[in-house]
Design a protein that fits this description.
Chain lengths: 145, 115
C-alpha cells in the first residue's frame, strides 16, 4: 500500500497556458474551487518561488476554508509542488508537453495518512466499517443533493 | 471538501493521524474502548506521553473519554472516523472537478486567442 494519490488529465492546450492557469491568481479564481464553491481572487496568494506562500480561500454556502501551503518546487512550466501547513500533505503537479498541442498534467499527493487512504488500509478500521458505510452513504446523499 | 466549519477539524484529524503512535492507538481503539494504561502497554513510552497523544486525538474529535468511571476509558468516535475515511472520496471529487473546470477555462482562453 502506497501513501500516494495520483490524478492524471490531458488538456488540449499548450503547456505554457496550463502553467499560467495553475499559477496566476486571476486564473486560479476561475477554476480552483469545487462545485458550489468560489475562490475569490483577493483570497489567493501565489508567491511563485521555493518557500513562497500558496494560499486559497474557498467560500461555500456553509462556510469557508483557507488552504495555507508553501511552495517546495517551482520549475516553470513543468513542475510545481507545495506542502500544506495544517496537514503536511504534499502535492506536486507535473506538466508534460505531449508535442501535439496537448499537455498532460499529473497531480501527485504524498503523506496521506494511512487511515485516510482507504478503509482497508488499516486492518483495525475494519470493525467500524459497517457503521462507516451507513454514515458515508448519508454523507454522499447530502453532498450530491 | 464539504466546506463546513468541520474542515478545520478534518485538518486537525489529518495531522493527528500522520503520527504512527496515534494511528496505532486508533487501530487499538477500533477493537473496543481501553484505558490509558491499557493503551500504553504496547509502547515503550511513559503514561504521560501516551496521554499527550490521546489529548491530540481528543482535540480533533477522533477519540472521546468516559466521565463516569475513574479510569475514564477512551473510545473511538465513529462519526469522526467517517469523516477521515471519506476524505479520499472528497479529495478525488475536488481534483476531478478542478480539472474539469480548468479544461473549460483553457478552451475559453484559446477561443479568445483565436477570436
Amino acid at each position: 500500500m502506497t501513501d500516494e494519490l495520483v490524478y492524471t488529465r490531458v488538456f488540449r492546450a499548450p503547456r505554457e497556458l496550463v502553467w499560467r492557469c495553475l499559477t496566476e491568481p486571476a486564473e486560479l479564481a476561475q477554476f480552483w474551487g469545487p462545485r458550489g464553491v468560489t475562490t475569490p481572487i483577493d483570497g489567493i496568494v501565489v508567491e511563485l518561488r521555493i518557500g513562497g506562500r500558496f494560499e486559497t480561500l474557498m467560500v461555500g454556502e456553509q462556510g469557508s476554508h483557507r488552504m495555507v501551503a508553501t511552495f517546495t518546487e517551482v520549475v516553470p512550466p513543468e513542475r510545481l509542488a507545495w506542502v500544506e501547513t495544517a496537514t503536511g500533505l504534499r502535492t506536486a503537479g507535473t506538466l508534460t508537453d505531449l508535442g501535439d498541442g496537448g499537455t498532460e498534467v499529473v497531480i501527485h499527493q504524498r503523506n496521506v495518512p494511512e487511515p485516510m487512504r482507504s478503509p482497508e488500509a488499516g486492518a483495525g478500521f475494519r470493525t467500524s466499517l459497517d457503521k462507516l458505510e451507513q454514515h458515508l452513504r448519508r454523507l454522499t446523499e447530502r453532498t450530491s443533493s | 471538501m464539504t466546506l463546513t466549519v468541520d474542515d478545520e477539524r478534518l485538518d486537525a484529524m489529518f495531522a493527528a493521524l500522520a503520527d504512527r503512535t496515534r494511528r496505532d492507538i486508533v487501530t487499538r481503539l477500533s477493537r473496543g474502548e481501553a484505558t490509558v494504561t491499557e493503551l500504553a502497554e504496547p509502547f515503550a513510552m511513559s503514561l504521560q506521553a501516551v496521554s499527550q497523544h490521546i489529548r491530540v486525538l481528543e482535540r480533533c474529535g477522533l477519540v472521546s473519554r468516559g466521565r463516569h468511571r475513574q479510569t475514564r476509558p477512551c473510545r473511538l468516535e465513529p462519526r469522526a472516523l467517517e469523516a477521515a475515511v471519506s476524505w479520499i472520496e472528497e479529495n478525488r471529487r475536488v481534483w476531478t472537478e478542478r480539472m474539469d473546470r480548468l479544461e473549460t477555462r483553457l478552451a475559453e482562453l484559446q477561443g479568445e486567442q483565436r477570436g
